[in-house]
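Many introductory courses stop at the sequence. We go one step further.
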Amino acid sequence: MGYPENVLAKDEHVVLHRHPHWGRLTIPALVLIVLTAIAAFVAGYVNTLNWESNAKNIVFLVIGAIWLLLVGWLTVWPFLNWLTTHFVITDRRVMFRHGLVTRSGIDIPLARINSVEFRHGLVDRMLRTGTLIIESAAQDPLEFQDIPRVERVHSLLYHEVFDTLGSEEAPS
């Protein structure tokens, strides 16, 4: 799915659009599995008790409500935050947007970027992710974490910056 065209300027084109790395969703997925197993175990235990069926139904509803609340908070919310986080490189700027209820973002014109760096450790290298660091003329360096294939993004952004500047240092 491409980035919405209505946020782009006239004749601006998306070069790269990424969400954070999928690894950010592993803990919420594990939490979903564990919470479901616990809820199923407790419901199975309650089902073995010699309680009146109305009492069992009320306990099942409470278990379901607690499960639904915890799953929404610990798994659905992180997924929606992941889904609404965008790292976009266009032929004119770098855009970062995030947030579900309260949205925020930053735009960095390519012409104002001084340097582009990346950092990733051993686990990040195995998962092909990392942190992209962009230093612009007017701000402290900005760090964008969990960028998939950060080395490729770094290289692409480097080329875009120098193509925009029309520099003699531009790589061939």
